[in-house]
């Protein structure tokens, strides 16, 4: 068993001002996307230029924050919202969902694409490789907060999370997700997008791979207490929401390559 490194969730405290590590992970995600986006924008044939990256990140940030909060409320805590509608706006109390954030970003990218005169998939193919670093940083934030812990285990690298309602040794599933959704997804997408691909292929690969990685990670992650398992004592909300991503991503890639070969 490994000892859980209890890190103060507050990174910087100046009087009443407190800056949390989790908030800084969002900053890391947006700054890395801006930096990598400027690198991609310099390549011949890029649908975006460097000057447009600031606007792109602004639109993406709106989509992530608004969509992520809305998704958490609808998918994971709708009953609490019905009991206390104002809770929707108390973002400082926590609660963000990737799938909601994804929907928010897709809407924001459609708006941005129309504004700059590009097609939706030109923009999403450009953006997809920029996303995983932010996803990985967010999982590190979850780990620092000691939240979204894994299921009980007897593996040598298991940990006891202080916020868990028991003293069981658990999978550090946040780190599994960091490795898959952050490191591995970034490496594959950056490599795949380094060469010209049919339009929609990069976006499709992002959806399919993230969906697969999330479904796998859910087998190690403790389901949300207010939802539990949805079926068969193993199906989780995260898996239900990720399966359409896998199917849609695979279909998009097949369609993209068939269309390019026609």
A few lines on this structure:
This protein has 9 helices and 2 strands; from the N terminus they run E-E-H-H-H-H-H-H-H-H-H. It is mainly alpha-helical. It has one domain.
Question: How would you sum up this structure, described in words?
Answer:
The protein has 262 residues and is mostly helical. It has one domain. Helices cover 59% and strands 3% of the residues. The chain contains nine helices and two strands; from the N terminus they run ββααααααααα. The protein has helices at residues 21-41, 53-76, 78-83, 98-116, 120-127, 132-145, 173-192, 201-218, 237-261, and strands at residues 10-14, 17-20. It has a two-stranded antiparallel ribbon. A hairpin with a 2-residue loop joins β1 (10-14) and β2 (17-20). α1 (21-41) packs antiparallel against α6. The N and C termini lie far apart (56 Å). The model has no long low-confidence stretch (mean pLDDT 93).
- Domain module count: 1
Enumerate the spans where pLDDT stays under 50 for 5 or more consecutive residues.
none
Question: Helicity level, as a percent range?
Answer: 55-70%
Cα gyration radius (Å):
19 Å
Structural class: mainly alpha
Task: Output the helix-strand order.
Answer: EEHHHHHHHHH
> How many strands in all?
2
- How many individual helices? 9
User: What percent of residues are in strands?
Assistant: under 5%
Neighbour order of strands in the largest sheet: 1-2
Overall shape: it is: globular
| Nearest-integer average pLDDT | 93
Function: Catalyzes the transfer of the diacylglyceryl group from phosphatidylglycerol to the sulfhydryl group of the N-terminal cysteine of a prolipoprotein, the first step in the formation of mature lipoproteins.
Membrane topology: Multi-pass membrane protein
Keywords: Cell membrane, Lipoprotein, Membrane, Transferase, Transmembrane, Transmembrane helix
Pathway: Protein modification; lipoprotein biosynthesis (diacylglyceryl transfer)
């Amino acid at each position: 068993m490994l000892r859980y490194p209890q890190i103060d969730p507050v990174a910087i405290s100046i009087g009443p001002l407190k800056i949390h590590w989790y908030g800084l992970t969002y900053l890391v995600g947006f700054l890395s996307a801006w930096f990598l986006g400027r690198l991609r924008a310099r390549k011949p044939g890029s649908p975006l230029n460097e000057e447009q990256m600031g606007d792109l990140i602004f639109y993406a940030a709106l989509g992530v924050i608004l969509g992520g909060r809305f998704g958490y409320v609808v998918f994971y805590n709708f009953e609490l919202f019905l009991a206390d509608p104002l809770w929707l706006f108390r973002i400082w109390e926590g609660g963000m969902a990737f799938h909601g954030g994804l929907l928010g970003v897709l809407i924001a990218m459609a708006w941005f694409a129309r504004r700059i005169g590009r097609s939706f998939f030109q923009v999403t193919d450009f953006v997809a490789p920029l996303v995983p670093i932010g996803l990985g940083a967010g999982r590190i934030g979850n780990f620092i907060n000691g939240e979204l812990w894994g299921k009980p285990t007897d593996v040598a690298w298991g940990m006891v999370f202080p916020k868990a309602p028991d003293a069981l040794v658990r999978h550090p599933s946040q780190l599994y997700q960091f490795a898959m959704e952050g490191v591995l997804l970034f490496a594959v997408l950056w490599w795949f997008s380094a060469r010209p691909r049919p339009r929609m292929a990069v976006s499709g690969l992002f959806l399919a791979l993230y969906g697969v990685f999330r479904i796998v990670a859910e087998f190690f992650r403790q389901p949300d207490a207010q939802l539990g398992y949805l079926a068969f004592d193993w199906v989780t909300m995260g898996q239900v929401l990720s399966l359409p991503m896998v199917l849609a991503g695979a279909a998009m890639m097949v369609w993209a390559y068939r269309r390019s070969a026609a």
